[in-house]
Amino acid sequence: MMINAAASIEINKQALNELNVFPVPDGDTGTNMSMTINAAAADLRKLEDPSLEKAAAASASAMLRGARGNSGVILSLLLRGISKKLKGTEECDGVLWAQALQEGVDAAYKAVMKPAEGTILTVARLAAAKARQASEENNYFEFVHEAAIAEAKVALANTTNQNPVLKKAGVVDAGGKGWLVALEAMLLALKGEDIIVPEGLDTGDVKEAADFSDFNTEDITFTYCTEFIISRENDLDPEKLREFLSSLGDSLVLVDDEEIIKVHVHTNDPGKALHEAMDYGSFVTVKIENMRLQHTEKVMSEQELAPKIAEPEKPIGVVSVCVGDGIADVFRNLGVDGVISGGQTMNPSTQDILEVVNKVPAETVYVLPNNKNIIMAAQQVDALTPKNVVVIPSKTIPQGITAMLSFNPEGETEENVAAMTEAMGTVDTMQITYAARNSDFDGFMIHEGDYLALYGSALFGTSKDIKILLKSLAEKVRDEGKTYVTIYYGDNVKEKHAQKAADIFAEICPDADVNLLHGGQPVYYYMISAE
Known about the structure:
This protein is an alpha/beta fold. The protein contains 20 helices and 16 strands.
């Protein structure tokens, strides 16, 4: 069911992205949901003899760590609740499945500070409620699941009426559509139908080749994990080596081509394995490890995920999500311990944030998401680490920088949170980017390739001439009485052009201190902070 759902969301990823009504490449829903659920699909493909409970637990764990964006986090929470309800069970009927769907809804609603109607939460809630009613009528699993799907379709269609932005754009909620896609794919799996992903589509971290780390060593019969590569130097049949090694141990994987033979085997006598293998050619690499003393990363997939946690050397540390070398340097100069690269859309997963948090040698780690779509993903980190994680809800990079100016490395957490949050309220963020496609938004007729100016999270204006937008933003800054302006120019902007942008602000805002810095950010030509 999960693998089918992941495949279907992957196929429909772009269609889900197209439901985003705002034409800025910022945390696409389809991409986020696909990357999140495909993390589970990848782990499930590795799972040996999966029981219902193990499959559900593996799905929830992988999705939590791989969650991206709000839609990805909510999707992971739906599965976390389902997994919690299925814990300790080996079979699931209609009643239990309805309860599991409701548990998922409860987990998601609990995590969202201000749940809004007309979203994936609405669709999931109403579908779960209908499933509960259906289970009272008929305890057959498929009957209950089909009822949930039918209600999800009705609820999804109504999201257009519940959300003013969706209504204006004439579309349904992208996250809700993604949940419906997942439920429908699950039903096909129940009926024995697999969804085939067309060739060329990216399905996340799924591996097609043999991976020597994909073995279960919980019940260790043979002591030594033995791995080697041989450079083929004769025409001896590798199948004979396979037969010999099979009699010597277990967990055997032998891969051969015209140039090498690659072997992984668990055995109590690695010397015999190596001696036999020498007949086929020279050793390129050899590794032998005692599995009774340690579980290696290659054998234990769980250890691949085990966090490396730095011992605390100070009470407080800070990590920040950002994009662009110049902006990263600004955060480091302000005392940030770790920088989380968010990629082009500045949208790291919970696992990405967790790994950087664990590297900070502090008891308490503050996280600056600097993007409203990352706040929920960051808030999940606290449950995954022994460190105390405090999320400062910065929605833009300028807010994060201003918050750091108020950070006291020796202060108490409550004082720091209050000071940093208050400081964020003093800064306005402006950005100039481009339109990804034609659209009509808040009365603006937007054409693909137009320059777009954003003031906060609202569309400020569009133009074919970037100077017109810069002048309009500068006039807004002047009228708001701002006295300190910092302009971060992107990686596709030449310094001489950026200087002209700074000159526009200096001329229109003579009472403001205007600074120009190379941010190096993609997508946004200019990111402007005004205080």
